[in-house]
Amino acid sequence: xxxxxxxxxxxxFGDVSLEASRKLGRTGAHLLSLIASLPVxxxxxxxxxxxxxxxxxxxxxxxxxxxxxxxxxxGDWGLMLxxxxxxxxxxxxxxxxxxxxxxxxxxxxxxxxxxxxxxxxPDPFRQSLMP
Length: 131
What we know:
Elements lengths: L15 E9 L5 E9 L7 E2 L2 E2 L12 E11 L3 E11 L13 E10 L7 E2 L4 E4 L3
Antiparallel strand pairs: 1-2, 2-5, 3-4, 5-6, 6-7, 7-8, 7-9
């Protein structure tokens, strides 16, 4: 029937990620993380003879990788966090879908006001890198 809503379910798990992190520096102020995404989730699920769009799939179908770096600075006035992320979603999978690589930088600042530390920190820079 036209306009009737139907629910679909895909059985199984999505992709699995493995993460390794390491603190560096004399005070452990630098944090480096590497994340690998293993394609174990369905990336080619079909409903009524039509392949579901990429955002409805549980997996990507290809290996992916992410690298993150974070620096923490604790001053007398408060806390400052600076970081960046580079993400590679993998190459084109067997049904022609792919995820664009991306890079993100962020800064978060907190100022001590008595027992509280109000903070602000929208991501001022977010950009996708198209191949």
